[in-house]
């Protein structure tokens, strides 16, 4: 058949070919575009069959172009071979010698070109995937490193001030102590706390407080840039001084920090001046640990605070041991109460008129299993600081009333027992209930109990304690002001307070022993006269000599207490003492 006829027929074959391969692969082209491409390949196949000599490259090129056009599945190749074998010669009316042999060879070259192109494409795709995977992994690793760096920074830095936090400071401090080659070094820690920072937060708000913390952090960083400055939390900062040559190096850092903090600062429109307290610890790294250093610095910071603030304090091992011993002693009080280690001694309050024992003051003692008998001044202040004085005071009250209930007295007139009330006890809302309960359980008549209150407590403007004492006074319980004359007493208050007795401080009585002590004697005479005008009795404390007793008697003092009349001890010897003859005052 002629060439004109051949040129007319490829379109029909291409449409049949396109229909056969449609759906075998994803083809990113329209149907018309597919038919146009396949018609071009059809003409090349026809050319290959007629070529002399037979050209294998054309079939291979056709197979490769099919793969490039994304006809790249086994089914697509199979249908292509089938369509070419069954329809190419017929649809194009090709007359070719040895057509079957040529057709077989053509199909083989198409398949070969197809397979090679598919292999190359697969390898290319695999290489692209490999490269993409490598790039993705590299990007992921970079992102991971960046994330780890961000997380590390967030985990080791304070979000408000940007300074290193406790975690990073502890790491650096640990390295300064334990890193190789540091065994002969010395290290210093300055623990800084702003003074009265709570006032800023309470009066100006937390936003201003936070701004002030940022300002302080920036100043510390600028002034101490060569040292690690960290914020531990709140208004607490800490400075690490590595490789010190001695204590002076750490002290210089502390003084620089105090100077940086106390400069006036304009914060959110407020001009603020703050100060700081610093605890300093400086020692060899050998034999210490981060925990020991921080604990010592914290304790020393409290010393600086207790001394008034706006200063630094240097760690003192001896003082620290004493503080730890005090803490251990206060912590042992509850268990000591449970084990019955406390007991009471008594000191008599003796009439200056006839020598009778009018009452006895209960004085608590601690029979410590390791330290022996402890006097009140070694543990009462600790109990007051920790609040344990409430429980201890309740025990003293109950035990004193129980023992006083067993005391004999001439004609049934036994001495009263005098018990000291701490400030915390006096401010308890259930004080009246407690005293009533103790009197009820022990059977002690109310008039045989005297409660001693310090002068400063009685001058308090708080109404409730005074009201409680009035109720107890109405029950018959006696109330005395202890150590009268040592506080800031407004004498006019005595007119309305529920008080029965003034116990004049021993400082005035001590002056009676010296020659020419007329001033102390006139003061005592005035106090006695005032008390008697208010229908109060007067007991002088600290009476140690007969001469003091005589002079007190001469000015009209009612009773005395002190070593002259008896030292603290068990109640029985005082109760059995026969009153000495006492001349009446002139």
UniProtKB/TrEMBL annotation:
PROSITE patterns: EAL, GGDEF. Pfam families: EAL (PF00563), GGDEF (PF00990). InterPro entries: Biofilm_reg_signaling, EAL_dom, EAL_sf, GGDEF_dom, Nucleotide_cyclase, Rev_trsase/Diguanyl_cyclase. Residues 185-317 form the GGDEF domain. Transmembrane segments: none annotated. Residues 326-582 form the EAL domain. NCBIfam families: GGDEF. This is Diguanylate cyclase/phosphodiesterase.
């Amino acid at each position: 058949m002629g060439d004109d006829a051949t040129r007319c027929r490829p379109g029909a074959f291409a449409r049949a070919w396109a229909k056969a391969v449609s759906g075998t692969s994803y083809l990113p082209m329209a149907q018309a575009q597919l038919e146009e491409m396949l018609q071009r390949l059809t003409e090349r196949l026809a050319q290959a069959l007629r070529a002399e000599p037979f050209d294998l490259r054309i079939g291979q090129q056709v197979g490769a172009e099919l793969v490039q056009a994304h006809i790249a599945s086994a089914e697509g190749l199979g249908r292509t071979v089938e369509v070419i074998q069954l329809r190419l010669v017929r649809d194009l009316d090709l007359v070719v010698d040895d057509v079957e042999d040529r057709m077989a060879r053509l199909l083989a070259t198409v398949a070969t070109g197809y397979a090679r192109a598919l292999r190359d494409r697969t390898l290319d795709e695999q290489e692209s995937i490999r490269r993409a995977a490598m790039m993705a992994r590299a990007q992921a690793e970079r992102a991971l490193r960046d994330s780890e760096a961000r997380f590390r920074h967030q985990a080791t830095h304070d979000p408000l001030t940007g300074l290193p936090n406790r975690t990073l400071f502890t790491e650096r401090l640990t390295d300064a102590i334990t890193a190789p080659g540091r065994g002969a070094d010395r290290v210093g820690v300055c623990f800084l706390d702003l003074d009265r920072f709570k006032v800023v937060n309470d009066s100006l708000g937390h936003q201003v407080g936070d701004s002030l913390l940022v300002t302080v952090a920036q100043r510390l960083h600028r002034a101490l840039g060569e040292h690690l400055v960290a914020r531990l939390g709140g208004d607490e900062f800490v400075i690490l001084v590595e490789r010190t040559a001695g204590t002076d190096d750490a002290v210089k850092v502390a003084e620089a920090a105090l100077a940086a903090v106390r400069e006036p600062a304009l914060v959110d429109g407020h001009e603020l001046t703050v100060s700081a307290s610093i605890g300093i610890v400086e020692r060899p790294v050998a034999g210490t640990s981060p925990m020991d250093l921080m604990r010592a610095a914290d304790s020393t910071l409290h010393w600086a605070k207790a001394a008034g603030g706006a200063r630094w304090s240097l760690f003192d091992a001896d003082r620290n041991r004493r503080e730890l011993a005090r803490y251990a002693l206060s912590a042992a009080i509850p268990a000591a109460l449970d084990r019955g280690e406390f007991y009471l001694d008594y000191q008599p309050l003796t009439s200056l008129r006839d020598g009778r024992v009018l009452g006895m003051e209960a004085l608590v003692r601690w029979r410590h299993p390791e330290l022996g008998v402890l006097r009140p001044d070694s543990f009462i202040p600790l109990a007051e600081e920790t609040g344990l004085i409430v429980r201890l005071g309740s025990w003293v009250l109950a035990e004193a009333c129980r023992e006083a209930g067993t005391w004999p007295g001439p004609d049934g007139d036994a001495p009263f027992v005098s018990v000291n009330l701490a400030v915390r006890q006096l401010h308890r809302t259930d004080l009246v209930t407690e005293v009533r309960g103790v009197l009820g359980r022990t059977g002690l008549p109310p008039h045989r109990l005297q409660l001693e209150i310090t002068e400063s407590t009685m001058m308090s403007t708080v109404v409730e304690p005074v009201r409680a004492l009035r109720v107890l006074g109405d029950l018959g319980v006696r109330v005395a002001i202890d150590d009268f004359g040592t506080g800031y007493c407004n004498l006019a208050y005595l007119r309305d307070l529920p008080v029965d007795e003034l116990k004049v401080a021993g400082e005035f009585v001590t002056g009676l022993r010296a020659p020419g002590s007329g001033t102390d004697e006139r003061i005592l005479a005035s106090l006695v006269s005032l008390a008697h005008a208010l229908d109060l009795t007067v007991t002088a404390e600290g009476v140690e000599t007969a001469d003091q007793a005589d002079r007190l008697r001469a000015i009209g003092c009612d009773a005395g207490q002190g070593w002259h009349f008896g030292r603290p001890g068990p109640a029985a010897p005082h109760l059995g003492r026969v009153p000495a003859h006492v001349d009446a005052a002139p």
